[in-house]
Amino acid sequence: MRFIVDVGVGKKVEEYLQTEGFYVKSVREINPCLSDIEILKIAVSEGLMLITMDKDFGELVYNTGKAHEGVLILRLDGANGAEKVEVLKEILSGYADRIKGKFCVFQGGRLRLRG
After folding, report:
1. Is 115 part of a structural domain of the chain?
2. Counting Cβ atoms within 10 Å, is residue 35 exposed (0-12), middle (13-18) or buried (19+)?
3. CATH of the domain at 70
4. Which pTM was predicted?
5. Which of 22, 53, 55, 80 is the most buried (most CB within 10 A)?
């Protein structure tokens, strides 16, 4: 899988994904001021699944139907980098084969997947 990681997710998650052999593009390194629409355009043009903590992507993708290659919204308010990595490990170990191309929300210890 190939990912684009939004600014709020953090460097620890980027580093974890890279050490696991995933291709990772970082919004933080491209331009931390990119708009959500610009992030989605990059994700679609390069076939990248977006990992974000920004629930505004739910409106853009799920409610208005913007094209995407998969979105994983981590609802982990107040979580530090290590906690985010642990959640991502859990998601990838249990759901990696099912999240590609899906709209996913992790909240309250659960992962919800939608077409």
Report:
1. no
2. exposed
3. 3.40.50
4. 0.95
5. 53
